[in-house]
Amino acid sequence: MPEGGYYNSKKSDDFCEDVCGPQTARVALSLTRLRCILRGFDLKALLLLFVGVPIFIFGIYLHGQKITYFLRPLWESPPKPFNIIPHYYHENVSMENLCKLHGWGIRETPRRVFDAVLFSNEVDILAVRWNELHPYISEFVLLESNSTFTGRAKPLVFALNREKFKFAESRLTYGVVGGRFVKGENPFVEESYQRVALDQLIRIAGINEDDLLIMSDVDEIPSGHTINLLRWCDEIPDKLHLELRNYLYSFEFYQDNKSWRASVHRYKPGKTRYAHFRQTDDLLVDSGWHCSFCFRHISEFIFKMKAYSHVDRIRFSYYLKASRIQDVICRGADLFDMLPEEHTFQDIIAKLGPIPSSFSAVNLPGYLLQNVEKYKYLLPGNCKRESG
């Protein structure tokens, strides 16, 4: 027993006391101190902290966009339903009866129709569009810029290929607008700037009150018989959206999501403005085709991916790899590895996975079927693209 009769029976932690000993090597000292610190932590908690959390953060980085789209029903309400107008057509039914079936009267003479588009580099699709609409269009209005929406310099592709469109030359109003090339700007700002310029070009083309104006991108193609119906029928809505069948990479892969629309307006001076968003609740169903990435060459896919307003969807550089793009086209998968843009979990889950091939060339633009060899890559069973 120590002096004073006091005995301390408290246990001591020898290795923690030894850390300050003068004979302890520097490396052993550091390891021993670390052991002292870690004795108060649970091993599972440490694994979660140093392994689980980084893996979780990396998973969010890789698949954050998918998670956001999958949870869309939680943070966004479905859009207001459209007033659906059934679409009647048969080549052996008179125009008077077709107008009557839609609840409209018939005019003594057809309205003039103006087809206005912004052009980037879609030469083949423009040929399909203009040949489909040519019999019914009074004036084609086309505007192109030396800048993409993302501020990248581009050649004036239409000007270089103008000879291919001689059939429309007598009814063509063509304009060029210089890009602003503002670095770091939201692409939708440049897009809006170009659409305002197109609005001015439409007026230069000579549009008048009650003429029909088609507002859609080059790859959003109304069917010719639909436009013919609207120019002959009286009492049609002032603004009318056209539901387009939505194809991805050719007229083989078909998405039945009714999300792409062109619009037709009865022109009102001082009121009608060229725009590309929902402008009315009236929707005429089954009125044409939308073929968003219908290109002949892989290089054209890469150009559009880097040029259009949704450039933010290129989350990783390998998205632009030619071999990957070719594989995605043939599988019918999403070019940006995105989930369906739907507003219910049921619709999202139902549309997961590759889009099934339709293998049907019925009710496609006639110009495609009249030029099968030239546009074979757009027809069923021909997913391979040229590399140039």
TrEMBL record:
Enzyme class, first EC level, given as a word: transferase
GO cellular component terms, A-Z: membrane
Keywords on record: Glycosyltransferase, Membrane, Transferase, Transmembrane, Transmembrane helix
Family matches, as PANTHER family: BETA-1,4-MANNOSYL-GLYCOPROTEIN 4-BETA-N-ACETYLGLUCOSAMINYLTRANSFERASE, BETA-1,4-MANNOSYL-GLYCOPROTEIN BETA-1,4-N-ACETYLGLUCOSAMINYL-TRANSFERASE
High-level lineage: Eukaryota, Viridiplantae, Streptophyta, Embryophyta, Tracheophyta
GO biological process: N-acetylglucosamine metabolic process
EC number: 2.4.1.144
GO molecular-function terms, A-Z: beta-1,4-mannosylglycoprotein 4-beta-N-acetylglucosaminyltransferase activity
Transmembrane segments: 43-62
Pfam assignment, any one: Glyco_transf_17
Name assigned to this protein: Beta-1,4-mannosyl-glycoprotein beta-1,4-N-acetylglucosaminyltransferase
